[in-house]
Specification:
Layout (H helix, E strand, L loop, with lengths): L2 E10 L4 E11 L3 E5 L6 H4 L3 E8 L5 E13 L4 E7 L5 H12 L13 E2 L2 H4 L4 E6 L2 E10 L3 E6 L12 E7 L8 E15 L4 E10 L4 H21 L9
Antiparallel strand pairs: 1-2, 1-4, 3-6, 4-5, 5-6, 5-12, 7-9, 8-9, 8-11, 9-10, 10-13, 11-12, 12-13
Length: 244
């Protein structure tokens, strides 16, 4: 869900004060994407913390000030700036409630396959992803998963060597379901760079589109996804029934 609104982003560095104004941008409860970099610099400023001042008048007024981290997002089409809201209460709760009440769907089409977020329900299956990054076997975390692709992230410096459109072989282990690992392969279609503000560690998120998966591995992947969905469904509250 998102709302459209105007905002000002301010950033103070040792060299300069920046105040950037944006009109009619899509704003979600987590942040704002696809912003132009100028006059900021993608390599110099990503990871820094600034302030977003929201001013939305319709359908009801909303005026908030939220801290936001600058993130760098790359796709085959562009390298854009993003602003990731920091979890400051109660402002973020107020924004979330406003968007849930007044927002629009974030996409105008239905995905052929939904993404399953990597929440504690998936972690029940002890998912483990390793990838061969230029000869280095690197452990990665699962952010979300679908039959068509996977979003992964890592703090490992080896991931900084990866580039868009690069082919990436991976191994998915789910020992609770399969005795053998699932071999996956895909193309990097999205890269997002941000920082863990507590550890000051760079985090790289990689959106991978699957390609060239062997039939047996594809079969096991679909079984795994089905089992995850069954597990999630079992944890949901039963629908309430009303007596006539």
């Amino acid at each position: 869900m998102f709302i459209r609104g105007s905002f000002t982003f301010t950033l103070d560095t040792d060299e300069q004060h920046y105040s950037l104004k944006f009109e009619k941008k899509k704003i979600s409860e987590t942040g704002i994407e696809r912003l132009p970099w100028a006059p900021l610099d993608a390599d110099k400023h990503h990871g820094k913390i600034g302030s977003v001042t929201l001013s939305i008048q319709s359908p009801t007024p909303l005026n908030l000030v939220l801290p936001a981290q600058i993130i760098k997002e790359a796709t085959p089409a562009e390298i854009s700036m993003g602003l990731q809201f920091q979890k400051i209460e109660p402002q973020l709760t107020e924004l979330t409630e406003y968007i849930q009440k007044n927002g629009e769907p974030s996409i105008t089409y239905t995905r052929r396959f939904p993404r399953i977020p990597s929440i504690h329900l998936i972690q029940t299956f002890a998912l483990k992803i390793t990838a061969d990054i230029h000869g280095a076997n690197t452990l990665l975390e699962v952010e979300d998963l679908s039959p068509e692709g996977i979003m992964i992230f890592t703090e490992k410096p080896a991931s900084l060597k990866l580039a868009l459109k690069e082919d990436l072989p991976m191994t998915l282990e789910a020992k609770a379901l399969f005795p053998n690992p699932i071999a996956l392969r895909g193309t990097i279609r999205r890269i997002r760079d941000d920082f863990d503000l507590e550890t000051k560690t760079a985090i790289r998120h990689l959106g991978i589109q699957f390609s060239g998966i062997a039939p047996e591995d594809r079969k096991n992947l679909m079984i795994l996804l089905k089992e995850i969905l069954v597990k999630i469904k079992a944890t949901l509250p039963a629908p309430s029934s009303s007596k006539p």
